[in-house]
């Protein structure tokens, strides 16, 4: 018997677990302090009424013999897959029902998708990056190379013809930097992937925050992307499903390598290892895509957008450089007066009782930067901005 010793190559603890321990220790030592948590990207507004009503109705169906449902299709019920299909169609993107796979969220799928790829593949990820991309590949023992995302390139690295990669992770709008690729920029990545026979793993979890024309919400806005890309999306940030759990992954039928359909491989993987998302949750997800549901969801998203604007205005007034905030719920700011982002974390926690995320937790290029999120309440965001302004104006 042998263990998978690749796990020993991981950091001892997950980034957000370390943050939680630090914050809990401070809160225990200072019970009188009001801590404002602007670090983890968890939503705070409730599910849309249309979603709740749909889930209540579905739960009622499960209590009646004639409408009770047992195992559902592992790849998702047709009613939800068609709702997702229509959502893309409204943006001019044509998908087939069989290309859409319903899951319990993008985080699961960006890790699980690796099951259909050999461990000999080389993986390209941006730095800084969402830790799951790196950790799941370390677990599998793959070689990882990095595309440098820096202030000089707007945290949007472009293809380097000298780099040879088989799997390419792209997250846009990006977590943690908030930077978003244009359709034209993604076209360069699609061209690069097609020339090399690589596959792009495109994380579109924050697509609903894109507001500027010319910026992409889907990799499939680029011609030829269906021949080289898989897209992951989630209702976690779009519709507040962080605790409800539902997302979807698009694996085009046109995506083949060595004569093998990746869609068929993923279908086989899912039907073997996954029993699907619950009927009740899928009915709730379906309601998100209705006219009523989308209107209600947009109201919540508008709150988060205003929160991001409040934080951005605060940093503008202080003359602190940042990215994100407009097409993303994340603010990626320089640490004023600090080269060590963990020291800046401690400084904000102790002096302003505000919690963010140290940039170094997202990779080497994240050092000297700090992530704030717009998912707190409006009141907490306003108060956090005032505290930051008061503290950092003295720095």
Write up what this structure looks like.
It contains twelve helices and 15 strands. It has helices spanning 15-29, 49-61, 78-89, 106-112, 131-140, 183-196, 236-239, 262-273, 279-288, 291-318, 341-352, 378-392; strands at residues 36-37, 100-103, 122-127, 143-148, 167-171, 199-203, 229-234, 247-250, 256-257, 260-261, 322-324, 330-334, 354-355, 357-358, 369-373. Strands 2-8-7-6-5-3-4 form a seven-stranded mixed sheet, with helices on both faces. The chain has a four-stranded antiparallel sheet with strand order 11-12-15-14. The protein has a two-stranded parallel sheet with strand order 1-13. The protein is globular and about 60 Å long. The termini are far apart.
* Subunit organisation of the chains: single chain
The biggest sheet amounts to:
7 strands, mixed
Tally of alpha and pi helices: 12
Shape: globular
The helical percent reads 25-40%
Radius of gyration: 21 Å
Within the largest sheet, what's the order of strands? 2-8-7-6-5-3-4
Percentage of residues in strands: 5-15%
Kindly, what is the distance between the CA atoms of the first and last residues, rounded to a whole number of angstroms?
56 Å
Mean pLDDT: 96
Structural class: alpha/beta
Series of secondary-structure elements, N-terminal to C-terminal: HEHHEHEHEEHEEHEEEHHHEEHEEEH
The total beta strand count reads 15
- Contiguous uncertain segments of 5+ residues: none
Write a brief structural summary.
The protein has helices at residues 15-29, 49-61, 78-89, 106-112, 131-140, 183-196, 236-239, 262-273, 279-288, 291-318, 341-352, 378-392; strands spanning 36-37, 100-103, 122-127, 143-148, 167-171, 199-203, 229-234, 247-250, 256-257, 260-261, 322-324, 330-334, 354-355, 357-358, 369-373. By secondary structure, the chain is an alpha/beta fold. Helix 2 (49-61) packs antiparallel against helix 9 (279-288).
């Amino acid at each position: 018997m042998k263990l998978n010793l690749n796990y020993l190559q991981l950091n001892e603890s997950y980034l957000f677990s370390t943050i939680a321990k630090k914050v809990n220790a401070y809160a225990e030592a200072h019970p009188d302090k009001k801590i404002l948590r602007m670090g983890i990207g968890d939503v705070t507004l409730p599910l849309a009424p249309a979603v709740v009503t749909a889930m209540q109705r579905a739960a009622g169906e499960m209590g009646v013999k004639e409408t009770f449902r047992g195992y559902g299709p592992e790849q998702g019920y047709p009613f939800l897959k068609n709702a997702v299909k229509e959502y893309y169609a409204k943006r001019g993107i044509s998908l087939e029902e069989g290309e859409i796979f319903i899951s319990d969220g993008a985080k699961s799928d960006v890790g699980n998708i690796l099951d259909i790829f050999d461990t000999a593949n080389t993986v390209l990820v941006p730095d800084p990056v969402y830790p799951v991309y790196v950790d799941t590949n370390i677990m599998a023992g793959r070689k990882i190379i990095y595309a440098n995302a820096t202030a000089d390139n707007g945290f949007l690295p472009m293809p380097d013809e000298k780099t040879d990669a088989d799997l390419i992770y792209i997250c846009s709008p990006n977590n943690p930097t908030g930077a978003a690729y244009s359709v034209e920029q993604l076209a360069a990545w699609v061209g690069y992937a097609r020339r090399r026979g690589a596959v792009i793993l495109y994380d579109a979890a924050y697509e609903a925050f894109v507001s500027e024309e010319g910026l992409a919400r889907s990799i499939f806005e680029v011609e030829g992307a269906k021949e080289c890309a898989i897209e992951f999306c989630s209702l976690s940030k779009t519709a507040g499903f962080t605790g409800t759990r539902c997302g979807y992954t698009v694996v085009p039928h046109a995506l083949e390598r060595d004569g093998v359909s990746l869609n068929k491989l993923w279908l086989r993987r899912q039907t073997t290892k996954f029993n699907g998302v619950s009927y009740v949750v899928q009915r709730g997800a379906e309601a998100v895509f209705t006219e009523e549901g989308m209107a209600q969801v947009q109201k919540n998203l508008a709150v988060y957008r205003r929160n991001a604007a409040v934080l951005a205005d605060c940093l503008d007034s202080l003359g602190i450089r940042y990215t994100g905030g407009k097409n993303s719920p994340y603010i990626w700011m320089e640490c004023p007066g600090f080269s060590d982002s963990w020291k800046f974390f401690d400084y904000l926690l102790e002096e302003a009782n505000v919690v963010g995320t140290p940039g170094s937790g997202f990779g080497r290029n994240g050092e000297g930067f700090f992530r704030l999120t717009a998912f707190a309440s409006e009141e907490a965001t306003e108060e956090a901005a005032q505290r930051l302004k008061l503290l950092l104006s003295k720095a």
